[in-house]
């Protein structure tokens, strides 16, 4: 979990500092099996202090590592990569 500024979204949420979880990143990272994975864009979801999503849907894939750590985010993901 990180503290981030909202760049896109509803006007009442934009320009506010909130806790978030990174679900995709452009920088390649190495998985334990040796495979390097990276995504087309950087993305995160806003969460509360308990780790529950503030939104209701996630567009695009979610990293498997994120889905393992945050099961509530994984349940709303359309696909897990």
TrEMBL record:
<dbReference type="GO" id="GO:0006412">
    <property type="term" value="P:translation"/>
</dbReference>
<dbReference type="GO" id="GO:0003735">
    <property type="term" value="F:structural constituent of ribosome"/>
</dbReference>
<protein>
    <recommendedName>
        <fullName>Large ribosomal subunit protein uL14</fullName>
    </recommendedName>
</protein>
<keyword id="KW-0687">Ribonucleoprotein</keyword>
<dbReference type="InterPro" id="IPR036853">
    <property type="entry name" value="Ribosomal_uL14_sf"/>
</dbReference>
<dbReference type="InterPro" id="IPR019972">
    <property type="entry name" value="Ribosomal_uL14_CS"/>
</dbReference>
<dbReference type="GO" id="GO:0070180">
    <property type="term" value="F:large ribosomal subunit rRNA binding"/>
</dbReference>
<dbReference type="InterPro" id="IPR000218">
    <property type="entry name" value="Ribosomal_uL14"/>
</dbReference>
<dbReference type="GO" id="GO:0022625">
    <property type="term" value="C:cytosolic large ribosomal subunit"/>
</dbReference>
<dbReference type="Pfam" id="PF00238">
    <property type="entry name" value="Ribosomal_L14"/>
</dbReference>
<comment type="similarity">
    <text>Belongs to the universal ribosomal protein uL14 family.</text>
</comment>
<keyword id="KW-0689">Ribosomal protein</keyword>
């Amino acid at each position: 979990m990180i503290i981030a500024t909202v760049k896109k979204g509803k006007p009442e949420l934009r320009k506010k500092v909130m806790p978030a979880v990174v679900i995709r990143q452009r920088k390649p990272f190495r998985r334990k099996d040796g495979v390097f994975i990276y995504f087309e864009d950087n993305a995160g979801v806003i969460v509360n202090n308990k780790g529950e999503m503030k939104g209701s849907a996630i567009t695009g894939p979610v990293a498997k590592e994120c889905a393992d750590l945050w099961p509530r985010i994984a349940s709303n993901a359309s696909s897990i990569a």
